[in-house]
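ok so i was messing around last nite and threw this chain in just to see what happens. nothing serious, just curious
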Amino acid sequence: GAHSALATYLFHHGSIDEAAIAMRRVTELVPSSAYAWNNLGGALQMKGDFDGALEAYRHSLQLEPSQDAYSNLATMYFYLHRFPDAVINYERAATLGEHDYMMQGNLADALWQTDGRHDEAVARYRRAILLAEKELEATPADPTLLAQLGYYYGRVGDADQSQRYLSAALSSGPEIMYVQYFAGVA
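result:
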């Protein structure tokens, strides 16, 4: 527990190399922990060790399939431009989190980048919109959620809704990294 807490602290404070060392120690102490292997993958991914990250995510999934590990593995494939592999793993993550708008949106992003699957991507963006709109009822002032909705609406071709949500997000959370990210990609 102490090594895991240390790794988390180091990770959140930008000491990625040290976080990876501490998380590697957790996997040595508790090699059967899928959670530890998944977190090691995240640290390795952040430090640019993509092969190590892929190996850690795969090991995590061998121990215990989880939405987070499938999503992280898919994200790694996405960054490596291995979009069909990303789709497969986002589909697995979305199956485990079928009511998670972010999983639906991530799957849509991978489908969008895959030849011949644009229509499927739009359908997933529409699903992400429905789920995100429900989430917005519970957290109406969440700037990141507003920005995500702006991005999703842009992908399905609704420029007016996209601009409305993006403007609201930028007004309420201009300093938030993910607000800037979704505004930029939209």
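not much to say yet. The CA atoms of residues 116 and 138 lie 36 Å apart.
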